[in-house]
Amino acid sequence: MRAIILMAVVIMTAVVHAGQQIKNIHIEKLENGVTAIIKERKDTQAVAIQVWFGVGSVFEKDNERGLSHFLEHMLFNGTKYTKPGEIEQEIEKKGGSINAGTSSDFTFYYIEIASPFWEESLQYLYYMTTAPLLSEKMIEKEKPIVLEELNRHLDNPKSVLWDTYNKLAYKVSNYKHPVIGYRETIEKFDQKLVRGYFYSHYVPSNTYVVVVGNVDREQVLKKIKETFGTVKGKHYRPPKVPLEPPQKEIRKEVIKKPQITRAYVAVGWQAPPVSSKESFTATVLEEILTGGRTSVLYQKLRETGMVQAIYGGYLSHRGTSQFLFYFITEPSKVEQVKKELFKILDGYRKEGVPEELVENAKRKIINSEVFAREEVTHDAQSLGYAASVVEDIYYDVNFTKNIKKVTKEDVDRFIKKYFGDNNYTEVQLLPEE
Fold this sequence. Notes:
45% of the residues lie in helices and 19% in strands. By secondary structure, it is of the alpha+beta class. It folds into two domains: 13-230, Cytochrome Bc1 Complex, Chain A, domain 1, CATH 3.30.830.10; 251-431, CATH 3.30.830.10. Strands 1-2-3-7-4-6-5 form a seven-stranded mixed β-sheet, with helices on both faces. A five-stranded mixed β-sheet has the order 8-12-9-11-10, with helices on both faces.
C-alpha cells in the first residue's frame, strides 16, 4: 500500500516539469523548483491566491520551537518593496482579505479577492513570501506580541489540555511540542536564526503557488514564472516525520483549574498518516461517529443529555495521526460518558458497523464536499494541502472517488486495528475541588 502511494508521488513529480493537466487543474513545476497549481473557474467572480510551504513546527529544532509561527508574524512586517501594513491596506481597500496559517505540518499565506485584482494580489504574496525584511528591529518589535499571544495560550485551560494531550500521545515526533513554541525559545530569537530558518525552508523547491478562480491559466502561469519562478535558493524538501511506536498502554493525566466549572475530556487513539489509504476510511468513520446531529455519538451522548457537546474524529498529520473524541459534561458524569463511549466502540469491534451507516456517511461527505468546493478558498486549500503535506495532488483530485471506495469491511477492520481498551491517551480538565 505504501509503495503504491509513493509511486503516485513519483509519477506526479515526473510529469509536472512539462506541465500536467489533471481534469481542469494545471500543475507545473518550474525550473527553480516552485510548483504552480492553477484551476480556472468561470462559475465565480472571485479568486483565491495561496502560497504553501512544506514547513511547520514538526520540522523545528529545539532552539527553533515556535519559529514557523513567529515567521508568520514577521512576513506581515514589511518587505524589500513595501512598508509594514501596506499590503494588507491595499488588499482591504479592494474588498479582499489577506491572512496566513501555521500548523505542525504546513504554513500558508493567502488572499481572497475579486478576480480583476488577481495579478497585483499575486505580486503582493510574492513580495511577502520571498522578500520579507526580517530586520532585527522588527524581530524585537514582534517578540512581545507573540509572547503575549503565548501568555493567552497558557492562560486558556483548553489550550493546556491539548498541549498535555500531545505531550502524552507523542514520544518520538515533534507533534509533542506546541506550534506557538515556548517562552525560552521565543525570547532568544535573533536575526541570524530567523533569517537562517527562512532562507533554508521557504525556498523554491518547498513552495506551492495555488490560484483558483475566474482567471486565465496562461496569464497566471506567466505571472508566476515572472515572479516566483525567478527566486533562487538552495534545495530543501521536508524530511519524513518519524512514526510513533505502537502505543500499548493507557496514558492519562488529570488537570484541575479553579476557573473551570465543567469537565472537558479528550480521549484518543493512534491513527495512520494522511498519506495512507486508511485515511479515507478514518474520514468515513469520523462522519459516522461525530459528523453532526445525526451522528452516532451525538444521538447517544448529546441527545440523551449525557454531554453538553461532543466533537472529534480523524486529526490527520504527515506522521502518526490521532483519532480522538472530545466531550464536555458535568464532572460527576465523566466516567459514565467514558463507559458509554467505550461500550459503543466495543460493540462495533465485535459486531461491525451497520452498512447503512457507512453508506450514509459516504454520501454526506461527498455532498458536503460539493458544496464546500463552491468556495474558491476551500478549493485552493484542498489543492495546497494535498501538494505540500500529502505530497500527492491525487489525494485531492480523487478524494470523493476514494471516499466512495470505502467499504463496511474497511471500517470494521479500522476499528479493530486501532481502537483498544488499553492503547489510548486521555486528558481530563476538571474543576478544582
